[in-house]
Amino acid sequence: MEKFTIVDFEELHLDAAGAFLASRHRAERRRFPLLPERYEDAAETRELVRAAMGYAEGVAAVDGDGALAGFLFTYRNLVDPSSPRARYAAARESMLLAHTHAVAPDAEPSAIYHAPFAVLAERLLTDGIFEHVAHVPAGNSTVLDAWYSLGFGKANAVAIRDLSPLRRSGTRAVEIRRATPDDIDIVQRLVDEEARFHATSPIFRPYVAEQTQRAVRASLMESLERDTDVHLIARAEGEDAGIIDVGPGRGSPLYVPPGAAYIGDTAVRPEFRGTGVGTALVEAGLAWARERGFRAMTLHFATANALSSSFWTGLGFEVAMWHLRRRIDERIASHRP
Ligand SMILES: CC(C)(COP(=O)(O)OP(=O)(O)OC[C@H]1O[C@@H](n2cnc3c(N)ncnc32)[C@H](O)[C@@H]1OP(=O)(O)O)[C@@H](O)C(=O)NCCC(=O)NCCS
């Protein structure tokens, strides 16, 4: 196996880093044509990496001639426990974004990812960071294998779909209305159903409603007042039964298609699940996005959530990227020979 040296990432590595990313993205686009074409251009991906030099810490794997074989950046994501994000993220975690790592197109990924991750993870350990989140393209199984062999496993999926109408529609008579700021109480209650469900086994996402509810309410209120977002409420049998939130695209630049909208909170009350309410909400969300001139839709779901995994893939969403996660046993901080 060829030996690589790990050095700090520098300007001189930018051209090759941009080229590796663009090459990987070209292959990804052959599988997922909705992904943005602009990042097939190495000058564009080079800029993404250059920006990462400003907010993240990067290392490069170089061969005996000093040529770049791969690179990896991370940044420390410290989450305010009372913020809406605390519902999804650990308090301290390191983020390895999709555009902040790549290997040479002809390289063996597992040989290259290993050493940069070892160097960065050791540094992070001294800062009390034991949790790592790596965003990894779904299309390349050898790259995924490299991350699995470092102890990572799937946590979330980023899925994409065009805006064509669903092939099937909800079976139940459902009335859909747009929520207004006056609906804040019911919106917050319905959105909370998603958090409650994610606290069940085997998802086990901590239910932190008490700490986060003020900030969650403020952020829901803001979004209800914005014209660019919509919360749609489904009414069935005379009751508010479920909710979906659609707004402008967000997420990792390589995985936000041009003209993408984004589905955020989605939940149906337990007694109404499995009867077509969710499908009717998605149909209405897609129609809203089409009318607004959007051209694609993205969303995230937790892979341990069997309900949402089958729901989204059944409605034609395809997984384009995984959020992989590794949690290191904290005893290592105090127990070493
Ligand atoms: C995911 C969710 C929004 C779907 O809404 P829903 O009204 O239950 O969905 P529908 O009745 O329209 O069902 C459509 C598909 O969802 C999946 N699904 C729904 N209920 C299911 C169940 N009890 N078991 C397994 N799959 C189920 C199936 O794929 C189903 O297709 P099928 O009818 O061909 O089997 C809803 O189940 C829910 O609120 N779950 C908890 C919160 C959550 O997971 N939110 C999504 C976060 S990304």
- The pLDDT mean sits at 96
Given as residue ranges, the uncertain stretches (5+ residues, pLDDT < 50) are: none
Number of helices: 8
CATH architecture of the largest domain: 3-Layer(aba) Sandwich
- State the share of residues found in helices, binned by percent: 25-40%
Q: Report the CATH topology name of the largest domain.
A: Aminopeptidase
Report the count of strand segments. Answer: 13
Bound ligands, each once: coenzyme A
Specify the overall morphology. Answer: globular
- Main sheet summary: 13 strands, mixed
Q: SSE string, helix = H, strand = E?
A: EHHEEEEHEHEEHHEEEHEHE
Strand content: 25-35%
- In CATH, what is the homologous superfamily of the largest domain? Gcn5-related N-acetyltransferase (GNAT)
CATH class of the largest domain: Alpha Beta
Rg over C-alpha atoms, rounded to the nearest angstrom:
21 Å
Spatial gap, N to C terminus: 28 Å
Describe the overall structure.
The chain is α+β, with helices and mostly antiparallel strands. The protein folds into 2 domains: 5-151, Aminopeptidase, CATH 3.40.630; 161-318, 3-Layer(aba) Sandwich (Aminopeptidase), CATH 3.40.630.30. It has helices at 14-31, 42-55, 109-125, 141-149, 184-198, 209-225, 277-291, 306-314, and strands at 5-8, 57-62, 68-78, 92-96, 101-103, 131-137, 153-162, 175-178, 230-236, 239-248, 260-268, 296-302, 318-327. Strands 1, 2, 3, 4, 5, 6, 7, 8, 9, 10, 11, 12 and 13 form a 13-stranded mixed sheet that branches. The two termini are 28 Å apart. The mean pLDDT is 96. The structure holds coenzyme A. Residues 170, 194, 197, 266-268, 273-279, 301, 305, 307-308, 310-311, 314 line the site of coenzyme A.
